[in-house]
Amino acid sequence: MTQERTRLERETRERLLDEAARLFAARGFARVTVRDICHAAGANVAAVNYHFHGKQGLYDAVVGVAISRMQQTTEAIVDAGRGRAADEQLTAFVRVFLERVVPQREGWIHQLMVRELADPTPALKLVVREVLEPRTRYLAGVVARLLSCRVDDVRVQRATMSVQWQCLAAIDTRLPDAAIAGDVATVAAHIATFSLGGIRSLTVMRPRPPRSRGTRPARQGPPARRP
Q1: pTM, 2 dp
Q2: How many Cα atoms sit within 13 Å of 207 on the Cβ side?
Q3: 19 domain-assigned
Q4: I want to staple 89 with a disulfide (CB 3.0 to 4.6 A). Which of 50, 79, 81, 223 is the partner?
Q5: pLDDT at 183
């Protein structure tokens, strides 16, 4: 194979990936055909089979690119907090996440993930395992240090969820502009301050043991009178 042919095949593969990412994000996996992708990429319809062994293989490759970039965000979060106190790590988590993701809210990765959440394919499990679970474990560790408790404490789980939902709300283009008004640094600082205040308030609480289903607390009433 000549160098020129190798270069042309590499360029074709990259065009297929780029156009597939755009189309899958805009329409979803089921509503995009191989012909659509090849037409957009200026490639022969056989190119998808040649490079990716079919439409599913191409979609898996697109998701793989998305996962790699999302993992880079997690790595940047961990790097920003390395060697710092837990409160600074939480602040860095929110700041780095928003700095990297907010500018890409209109990009294909965010759109593709929104579609996966609304209409999941088997790829969503891979995203959860490779991106969401490691990121959540890191944040849970930070919260556990703030609370000086075990990472499996229910307060850690709930606080971790609360921080993440605030971050997701800030990048949700469906919410009113007022929800994300101001620059990214201002919004990040608000979420971090709000979260740290809430987490610190949990230090005075102790998790209650779960109550058995079907049982009710004993009613407190006046002592019974003797006849």
Answers
A1: 0.82
A2: 15
A3: no
A4: 81
A5: 84
